[in-house]
Amino acid sequence: MTDAANETLPAGARPGRVVVVTAGGENPWIMINALAARFDDIVVLQERPESKGLFLRRRARKLGWPTAVGQLATMIASRFGKRFTRKRAKEILRLYGVSGTPDPSVPVRQIVSVNDDEAASQVRALEPDVVFLISCRMLTKATLAALPCPVVNFHAGINPGYRGLMGGYWARINDDVGNFGATVHLVDEGVDTGGILYQSRQTPARSDTVHTYPLLQTAASTDIAIAAVDDALKGRLRTLDVAGPSQQWYHPPIWTWLRNGIRRGIW
């Protein structure tokens, strides 16, 4: 980008192309909107949602059919329950001054999967300075190797102790609310195992549940995502030395979720 182009940037914007890969949704758009307010060249590649059948088969191969079916049941119950948490969700959006409504000025390109050849071609054609992942498929080794720039991921959990899924929920279940938060990290071949760039921590309200934990973690963490992208554009990415046990987590099976909700009030 030329100096003349820089002179026309919106107030507060930063030069450099950012490609965001996501499956879409309110939480990712909170982050996209925040990035678009700071960086002038944002393009979104939006994946087609993965089918529940594919999810079930993959999870069954890893954890067994009973657990996989129980986890799917929790996901379905959670989706129906989300309508009862809109009041708290609006409070979070208002508290952090964010919006999850897609900004029509941000260009969005539809892709099937970040790991297919067409998506890889689109990324290369866009010539990004950084690729930012949020709520998308895990990149394959081949896809990651083909990307021509740093790849950064937003994770709703504190790494390395809460890698994977539902990091906020499991921090509460483990009486570890001090590690309720989010991580922005470099992407490698593992599940949230890349070098940690920034972390943020929040204190969930008693009214927060699995429906609002990720919303809270995302809304409260736009600043660390902006900082990581800014570092990538300026060529100054530095990882943190974060000690502690490393564990990958999944959705709780429906019986675990109900038991903890009824006995402990943690939903």
Question: Characteristics of this structure?
Answer:
267 residues, alpha/beta, Rossmann fold, seven-stranded mixed beta sheet, two-stranded parallel ribbon, disordered N terminus
Describe this structure in words.
- The N and C termini lie far apart (48 Å).
- The longest helix is centred in the N-terminal third of the chain and has 17 residues, at 65-81.
- The chain is built from eleven helices and nine strands.
- The strands form two sheets. Strands 3-2-1-4-5-7-8 form a seven-stranded mixed beta sheet, sandwiched between helices. Strands 6-9 form a two-stranded parallel ribbon.
- The protein has helices spanning 3-6, 26-38, 52-63, 65-81, 86-96, 117-126, 141-146, 167-173, 213-219, 222-233, 254-264, and strands at 14-22, 39-47, 108-111, 130-133, 151-155, 163-164, 181-186, 196-201, 248-249.
- Strand 4 (130-133), helix 7 and strand 5 (151-155) form a beta-alpha-beta unit.
- The chain has one domain: Rossmann fold (3-Layer(aba) Sandwich), CATH 3.40.50.12230.
- With 267 residues, it is an alpha/beta fold.
Short description:
This protein has 267 residues and is α/β, with parallel strands linked by helices. The chain has helices at residues 3-6, 26-38, 52-63, 65-81, 86-96, 117-126, 141-146, 167-173, 213-219, 222-233, 254-264, and strands at residues 14-22, 39-47, 108-111, 130-133, 151-155, 163-164, 181-186, 196-201, 248-249. The N and C termini lie far apart (48 Å).
Draw up the topology in text:
Layout: H1 3-6, E1 14-22, H2 26-38, E2 39-47, H3 52-63, H4 65-81, H5 86-96, E3 108-111, H6 117-126, E4 130-133, H7 141-146, E5 151-155, E6 163-164, H8 167-173, E7 181-186, E8 196-201, H9 213-219, H10 222-233, E9 248-249, H11 254-264
